[in-house]
C-alpha cells in the first residue's frame, strides 16, 4: 500500500505490549503519538510469556530485539502421569522466545521513546467521546487530552472503552517468577507441563533473564478453578507445594524461593471477540478486541500483530484504514479464538471425558504427519496468514515482514 493519508494525531490508551508496539510503529511512521498510561510510571504486569515467530517478526519490524533477554523455545511437552500427551516442536529455523514481561517491556519502551512519543501518566482513562469527527481522552481527575484524529484502545482486559462483553472462563492460574535451579533435568529450551486430568496443570517455562539481572529465570504456573483464586491469599503454601510436588516431583527445586502466596500472582481469564474492532476515529487492539485462554500462548503475539496491521492500514485515509485493519486481522483472530475455545477444556476444566480424549485419541494422532506439522503452525501463529493481504514470510521471526 502506498501512503495516501495525511499524518495523524494519535492517542494510545495503555502502555502494555500492544500499546507500546502501536506507539513505536505509529511514531516511526511519522504520526504524532501521545501514549496515555494510568500508572504514574509505566511498568509491566505479569510473569513470563512466549513470543511466537509471528510476534518476533513484528518486533523485528519495530527494531526492538528481545532475543538477548529471552530463552529460545524449541519444544512444548506435557505429561499426564507417565504418558506424554503433548509434544509440539517448532520449526528449527523459527523457534519461539520465552521472555519475562519486564524484559519485553524494556525493549518496546526504548523503541517507543526513541521514536519521539509524548507520554501522559497518572490518571485512568474512562471515556473517549467523539466530537466533530475527533476523539478526546477523558481521564479521572485530570484535564482531557486531544482532540485526536484517532484513539487506539490498548488498555487490556480492564478497558473502560471497549464494548466487548467477554465470558469469564472457569479456570485461571497463579504465576510466579523464580531463579532457574542449578540442578534440574528440565531443559532450558522447552515449555514443560504436567496434568492431573484437566483439574490441575503445573508448568515451568524458561524465560531468560531480567533487564537488570543476568540470573536465568523461570516462570512457574499452577491452574486453579476461578472460584479458588479468590481464596489464594489465604493459601497454606507448604500444603500447596506438597500437592504440586506430588503431581510433579521435578518441580520441587523451582518452588524453594516461594515463601508466601503473595509470591505468586492470580490470573483470571475470559473469552470474547469484538465483531468490529473499531468505531469512528477509534480502534481496539489486543485484549480490548479479543480475549482467550493463554493455552495456545498467543495473547501477546495477537496484540503485536494488531498493532502492526493497524499501522499498515493507516497508510490509507482514516475512513478506509479502520475497516481495512479489521479485514487484515479477521480470519487469523477468528481461527485462534475458535482453537482456543476448543482446546482449553481439554487442559483446564472439570470434565472427566475430555482428558481421556486428549490422552488416548488426540495425543497419538498428534504424532502423525501432517497433524504434527499443523500443530507446529498452530503454536507458531502461522496456521493462517497472520495479516491478510501482506507478504508474510514463511519463516516469520527470522526477518521482519515487508512494510
Structure description:
Residues 10-329 form the FAD-binding domain. It comes from Cypionkella sinensis. This is FAD-dependent oxidoreductase. InterPro entries: FAD-bd (IPR002938), FAD-dep_Monooxygenase_BioMet (IPR050493), FAD/NAD-bd_sf (IPR036188). Keywords: Monooxygenase, Oxidoreductase. By secondary structure, this protein is α+β, with helices and mostly antiparallel strands. It has a domain at 9-75 and 95-167 and 270-349: FAD/NAD(P)-binding domain (3-Layer(bba) Sandwich), CATH 3.50.50.60. 30% of the residues lie in helices and 29% in strands. It contains nine helices and 23 strands. It has helices at 17-28, 53-62, 101-114, 226-229, 237-247, 299-313, 318-347, 354-366, 371-380; strands at 9-13, 32-37, 48-51, 71-73, 75-80, 83-89, 96-100, 118-121, 125-127, 130-131, 134-139, 145-148, 150-153, 167-168, 171-179, 190-196, 200-210, 213-225, 265-267, 270-273, 278-279, 282-284, 290-291. Strands 6-5-16-17-18-15-19 form a seven-stranded mixed β-sheet. A hairpin with a 3-residue loop joins strand 16 and strand 17 (200-210). Helix 1 (17-28) runs parallel beside helix 3 (101-114), helix 1 (17-28) packs parallel to helix 6 (299-313) and helix 2 crosses helix 6 (299-313).
Amino acid at each position: 500500500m502506498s501512503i495516501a493519508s495525511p499524518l495523524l494525531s494519535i492517542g494510545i490508551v495503555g502502555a502494555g505490549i500492544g500499546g507500546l508496539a502501536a506507539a513505536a510503529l505509529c511514531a516511526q511512521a511519522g504520526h504524532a503519538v501521545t501514549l496515555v498510561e494510568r500508572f504514574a510510571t509505566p511498568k509491566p504486569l505479569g510473569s513470563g510469556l512466549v513470543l511466537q515467530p509471528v510476534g518476533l517478526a513484528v518486533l523485528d519490524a519495530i527494531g526492538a530485539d528481545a532475543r538477548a533477554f529471552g530463552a529460545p523455545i524449541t519444544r512444548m511437552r506435557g505429561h499426564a502421569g507417565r504418558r506424554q500427551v503433548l509434544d509440539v516442536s517448532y520449526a528449527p529455523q523459527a523457534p519461539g522466545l520465552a521472555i519475562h514481561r519486564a524484559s519485553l517491556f524494556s525493549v518496546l519502551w526504548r523503541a517507543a521513546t526513541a521514536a519521539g512519543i509524548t507520554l501522559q501518566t497518572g490518571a485512568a482513562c474512562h471515556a473517549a467521546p467523539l466530537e466533530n469527527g475527533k476523539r478526546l481522552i477523558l481521564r479521572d481527575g485530570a484535564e482531557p487530552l486531544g482532540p485526536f484524529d484517532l484513539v487506539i484502545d490498548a488498555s487490556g482486559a480492564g478497558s473502560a472503552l471497549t464494548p466487548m462483553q467477554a465470558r469469564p472462563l472457569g479456570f485461571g492460574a497463579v504465576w510466579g517468577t523464580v531463579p532457574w535451579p542449578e540442578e534440574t533435568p528440565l531443559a532450558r529450551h522447552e515449555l514443560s507441563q504436567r496434568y492431573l486430568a484437566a483439574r490441575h496443570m503445573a508448568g515451568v517455562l524458561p524465560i531468560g533473564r531480567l533487564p537488570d539481572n543476568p540470573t536465568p529465570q523461570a516462570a512457574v504456573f499452577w491452574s486453579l478453578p476461578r472460584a479458588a483464586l479468590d481464596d489464594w491469599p489465604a493459601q497454606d503454601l507448604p500444603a500447596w507445594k506438597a500437592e504440586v510436588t506430588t503431581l510433579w516431583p521435578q518441580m520441587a527445586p523451582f518452588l524453594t524461593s516461594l515463601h508466601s502466596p503473595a509470591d505468586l500472582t492470580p490470573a483470571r481469564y475470559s473469552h470474547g471477540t469484538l465483531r468490529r474492532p473499531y468505531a469512528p476515529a477509534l480502534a481496539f487492539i489486543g485484549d480490548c478486541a479479543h480475549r482467550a485462554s493463554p493455552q495456545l500462548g498467543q495473547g501477546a503475539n495477537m496484540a503485536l500483530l494488531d498493532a502492526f496491521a493497524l499501522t499498515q492500514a493507516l497508510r490509507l485515509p482514516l475512513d478506509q484504514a479502520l475497516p481495512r485493519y479489521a479485514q487484515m486481522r479477521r480470519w487469523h483472530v477468528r481461527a485462534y479464538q475458535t482453537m482456543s475455545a476448543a482446546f482449553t477444556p481439554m487442559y483446564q476444566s472439570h470434565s472427566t471425558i475430555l482428558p481421556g480424549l486428549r490422552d488416548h485419541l488426540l495425543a497419538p494422532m498428534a504424532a502423525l504427519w501432517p497433524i504434527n506439522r499443523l500443530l507446529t503452525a498452530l503454536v507458531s501463529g502461522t496456521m493462517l496468514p497472520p495479516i491478510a493481504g501482506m507478504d508474510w514470510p514463511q519463516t516469520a521471526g527470522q526477518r521482519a515482514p515487508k512494510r
